[in-house]
Specification:
about 250 residues; alpha/beta; TIM Barrel; 10 strands; about 20% strand; globular; LamB/YcsF family protein; LamB/YcsF/PxpA-like; Glyco_hydro/deAcase_b/a-brl
């Protein structure tokens, strides 16, 4: 048994600090680093990439809507052309820093409401996949397990990384619950959920039921008040249960 642990990072801006990214690095295997639209700035982007390199953490682009005030969690009626160019712009910005530091981008993951837009809304699905395929077909596309976008990506022969968001609530239909402001959760409760996700492929819902989930990576949100404690508990619980923690390339290697 093995699993990737991904965490949203690089979301500070100027003098405003959000999350303790360096302290998270020892416990995770994939970093979703903000590319400057919903959060982050060039200094934060490079600093977070340097930490990822130091700790051996794989790097992915955490794409967002141009909505810093709403932290990328407010719906915006962007056109498909804007989705394409905004995506390329953000991927290119990250790749510049990765090139300088001798790293390669592992994956791409939308942030906040953009995650829902490209994962669920018919208007955006194919444009998003077209753009990733055109830019770099070797990128893993990280979205919620079972979503229509991942099914279409797999049909195209693109790499996919279905994830389970272990520090968010789920409804009975398997939809995760978007939080405008992240809440602190019990580190051990989140860790226990992670173990169940890997060993039983199930997660609990807000109404007390268990639903099927099948992912290769589990997500922790770096902007939660106790993210470091959660990440530490998750990694320790996984490894103490005989579950190997690895990045996406390690997960899919034979």
């Amino acid at each position: 048994m093995k699993i990737d642990i991904n965490v949203d990072m690089g979301e500070s801006f100027g003098r405003y600090i959000l999350g303790d990214d360096e302290s998270l690095m020892p416990y995770v295997t994939s970093a979703n680093i903000a590319t400057g639209f919903h959060a982050g700035d060039p200094l934060v982007l490079e600093r977070t990439i340097k930490w990822a390199k130091e700790y051996g953490v794989a790097v992915g682009a955490h794409l967002g809507l141009p909505d810093r005030q709403g932290f990328g969690r407010r719906q915006m009626d962007i056109s498909t052309e804007e989705l394409r160019t905004d995506t390329l712009y953000q991927l290119g910005a990250m790749d510049a820093f990765l090139k300088v530091h001798g790293l390669k981008m592992q994956h791409v993951k939308p942030h906040g409401i953009l995650y829902r837009m490209v994962g669920e809304q018919e208007k955006y699905i194919d444009t998003f996949l077209d753009t990733i395929e055109e830019y770099n077909k070797d990128l893993y596309i990280m979205l919620h397990t079972g979503c229509e976008t991942l099914k279409r990506a797999q049909a195209r022969g693109l790499k996919t990384a279905p994830e389970v968001l272990i520090d968010l609530g789920y409804d009975q239909n398997g939809n995760w619950m978007l939080e405008r402001v992240k809440k602190a959760r019990s580190p051990q409760d989140v860790a226990d959920r992670a173990v169940v996700v890997v060993k039983e492929k199930k997660i609990d819902t807000i109404d007390g039921k268990m639903i099927h989930v099948d992912g290769c990576t589990v997500c922790i949100h770096g902007d939660s008040p106790n993210a470091v404690s959660v990440a530490k508990a998750v990694r320790n619980s996984l490894e103490s249960n005989g579950i190997s923690v690895t990045n996406l390339d390690g997960y899919f290697s034979k």
